[in-house]
């Protein structure tokens, strides 16, 4: 539409003058006043609205940048804490494993000690039983000799028909038993 106005004015220009025709058709005074008010409005907006608005936008951008930086720092710290926790967990597992291994080794050592003590006790009891058996055997042999001597004296006195002293008889029988024991 604006271009159409220029074309119509150019056609009317030879008769009236181009500017006069343009002024009549467009009303240049209104356009000039509108431009001046627009410029004043732009100046006022720049001074009172645009500056504070840009300041707020800069503060907002700075706030966002600070929050991003804080988030990065927080993420970095949480990553460090996670690594520390993993290391502590690993150390705790290693400690637990060493404690279990120590307990196992102590158990094995105690078992070996108990086995050695039991074997020593069995050997002592075996030796004690062997000594006791030998003692009882000697006692039994002595009792059998006594019984044999008594029976021999009784048999000899019946055979001989007379009584000889018990001491002589005993000496004679013990000598016979000793000779019989050596012959075996």
UniProtKB/TrEMBL annotation:
The keyword Nucleotide-binding does not apply. It is found in: Cell membrane; Endomembrane system. Residues 75-113 form a coiled coil. InterPro entries: ATP_synth_B-like_membr_sf, ATP_synth_b/b'su_bac/chlpt, ATP_synth_F0_bsu_bac, ATP_synthase_B_chain. Keywords: ATP synthesis, Cell membrane, CF(0), Coiled coil, Hydrogen ion transport, Ion transport, Membrane, Transmembrane, Transmembrane helix, Transport. One of its GO terms (molecular function) is proton-transporting ATP synthase activity, rotational mechanism. GO terms for cellular component: endomembrane system; plasma membrane; proton-transporting ATP synthase complex. Pfam families: ATP-synt_B (PF00430). The chain crosses the membrane at residues 26-45. It is a single-pass membrane protein. The keyword Oxidoreductase does not apply. Belongs to the ATPase B chain family. NCBIfam families: ATP_synt_b (TIGR01144). F(1)F(0) ATP synthase produces ATP from ADP in the presence of a proton or sodium gradient. F-type ATPases consist of two structural domains, F(1) containing the extramembraneous catalytic core and F(0) containing the membrane proton channel, linked together by a central stalk and a peripheral stalk. During catalysis, ATP synthesis in the catalytic domain of F(1) is coupled via a rotary mechanism of the central stalk subunits to proton translocation. PANTHER family: ATP SYNTHASE SUBUNIT B, ATP SYNTHASE SUBUNIT B', CHLOROPLASTIC. HAMAP family: ATP_synth_b_bprime. F-type ATPases have 2 components, F(1) - the catalytic core - and F(0) - the membrane proton channel. F(1) has five subunits: alpha(3), beta(3), gamma(1), delta(1), epsilon(1). F(0) has three main subunits: a(1), b(2) and c(10-14). The alpha and beta chains form an alternating ring which encloses part of the gamma chain. F(1) is attached to F(0) by a central stalk formed by the gamma and epsilon chains, while a peripheral stalk is formed by the delta and b chains. This is ATP synthase subunit b.
């Amino acid at each position: 539409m604006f271009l159409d106005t220029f074309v119509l004015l150019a056609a009317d220009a030879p008769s009236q003058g181009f500017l006069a025709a343009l002024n009549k058709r467009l009303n240049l005074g209104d356009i000039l006043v509108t431009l001046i008010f627009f410029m004043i409005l732009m100046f006022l907006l720049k001074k009172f609205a645009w500056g504070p608005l840009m300041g707020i936008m800069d503060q907002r951008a700075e706030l966002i940048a600070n929050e991003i930086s804080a988030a990065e720092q927080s993420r970095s710290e949480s990553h460090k804490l996670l690594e520390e926790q993993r290391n502590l967990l690993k150390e705790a597992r290693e400690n637990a494993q060493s404690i279990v291994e120590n307990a196992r080794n102590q158990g094995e050592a105690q078992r070996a000690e108990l086995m050695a003590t039991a074997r020593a006790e069995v050997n002592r009891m075996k030796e004690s039983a062997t000594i006791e058996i030998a003692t009882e055997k000697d006692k039994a042999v002595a009792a059998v000799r006594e019984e044999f001597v008594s029976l021999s004296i009784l048999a000899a006195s019946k055979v001989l028909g007379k009584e000889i002293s018990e001491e002589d008889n005993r000496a004679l029988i013990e000598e016979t038993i000793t000779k019989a024991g050596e012959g075996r």
